[in-house]
Specification:
Number of helices: 0
CATH superfamily of one domain: TolB, C-terminal domain
Distance between the termini: 50 Å
Low-confidence stretches: 1-109
Oligomer: single chain
Strand content: 35-45%
Mean pLDDT: 76
CATH architecture of one domain: 6 Propeller
Order of helices and strands: EEEEEEEEEEEEEEEEEEEEEEEEEEEEEE
Number of strands: 30
Strand order of the largest sheet: 9-8-7-30
């Protein structure tokens, strides 16, 4: 007997901290969001009610169902899972820097990480690679900041902040000094990603209507649109550069409504190619999102809920060889990020009402808790 569970669309609700890189959509317009959607909502919670880890991602996805019915809770990139009669809080800051295991075969042999950046309590933090000695870099209690991203030399951090009411991209030195606002637009600018040469930053934005992938110079100038595939409420999110700087991967539901898949595109905007093909639709989970390249460029790690839970998956850069890498029982695991030497992956694991950062070897073994009440983890080069 097959149970039929209907998925519903999402809405980005205006909030002090919009979910990084997850502009989900809906059939109706929510005030000030510029996003269309209906059914499942991102419902903002007050800062004081959120765990100290991540108000930036403290958004509740609520199913439009009778009380006590099965709920669908979808996390970053509209990826999610079904949870009977309970809420979960998808925490979506995605930048942490950590170092944890011996270099496996195939690793690049790059220098070990010098630390990690992450989001906690609406601020950007910096800690040692083992998660100790955390330091608050931003200290902006009302701004809600998340998704830090290190420049290739590790000297600067780009991040999303709500200092002016909507999501904009900022950059600062790795010690928290020299803050500069890079984007200034009434739309949402989310999920910054540095090019390997440090000269450009890719990001997702709805400044042209629906969410597409854009690229700008590292100083915020020369913004150009890279993708043109959004259709209706279905856009593209979370770009990631290949180590050679020639290709980007990203998540999009433009061609598969209600079912985000992964795509690759050349840095000049040509050569669009679909990489994943799940059987997900409006009634079946199969969402893929939040991709990241391994340092050697051969592998792409990403999040998928094709098995019912949010889990870490890997595949070759051409989309072949897709396999489950890791996943914690009774949790949703998101946002994988490789260490500079390719030996480990940090990721975000969602529990009842908070997010923790875990680290696992690149072969999927040895999962270990690294930080509690933290999100958006990324290694420092």
């Amino acid at each position: 007997m097959t149970m039929k569970i209907t998925k519903t669309r999402n809405t980005v609700m205006p909030m002090a901290a919009n979910p990084p890189g997850i502009p989900a959509r809906a059939a109706r317009r929510s005030p000030g969001s510029g996003a269309a959607s209906g059914g499942v909502e991102y419902v903002p919670a007050s800062r004081s009610s959120m765990p100290p880890s991540s108000p930036e991602a403290a958004t509740r996805k609520r199913a439009d169902r009778p009380h006590g019915g099965r709920k669908i809770v979808r996390g970053t990139e509209r990826v999610g899972r079904y949870v009977p009669g309970m809420w979960r809080i998808p925490l979506i800051g995605i930048v942490l820097v950590a170092l944890f295991a011996p270099v496996p075969s195939g690793a690049t042999g790059a220098a070990p990480a010098r630390g990690l950046a992450f989001a906690r309590g609406g601020d950007i933090w910096l800690a040692r690679a083992d998660g100790t000695r955390p330091v608050n870099l931003t200290r902006t209690p009302r701004a809600n900041e998340y998704t830090p991203a290190f420049s290739p030399d590790g000297d600067r951090i780009a991040f999303v902040g709500y200092r002016h009411g909507n999501g904009e991209i900022y950059v600062m030195n790795a010690d928290g000094t020299g803050l500069k606002r890079l984007t200034s637009h009434k739309g949402e600018d989310l999920t910054p990603a540095w090019s390997p040469d440090g000269r450009r930053i890719a990001f997702a934005s709805n400044r042209a209507g629906e969410f597409e992938i854009f690229v700008m110079n590292a100083d915020g100038r020369a913004v150009r649109r890279l993708t043109r595939i959004a259709k209706g409420p279905y856009g593209s999110y979370s770009p990631a550069w290949s180590p050679d700087g020639r290709t980007l991967v990203f998540s999009s539901a433009a061609r598969t409504p209600e079912n985000p898949e992964l795509y690759s595109i050349r840095a000049d905007g040509t050569g669009l190619k679909r990489l994943t093909r799940t059987k997900g639709d409006a009634e079946v989970l199969g969402d893929d999102g939040m991709p990241t390249f391994s340092p050697d460029g051969r592998t792409i790690a990403f999040t998928s809920n094709r098995t019912g839970n949010g889990e870490l998956w890997v595949m070759r850069r051409d989309g072949s060889g897709q396999r489950r890498l890791a996943g914690l029982r009774d949790r949703d695991d998101w946002a994988p990020r490789y260490s500079p030497d390719g030996s480990t992956i940090v990721y975000e694991s969602l529990r009842e009402a908070a997010s923790d950062v875990w680290v696992v070897r690149a072969n999927g073994t040895g999962a270990k808790l690294l930080l509690r009440n933290a999100s958006g983890a990324v290694y420092r080069p």
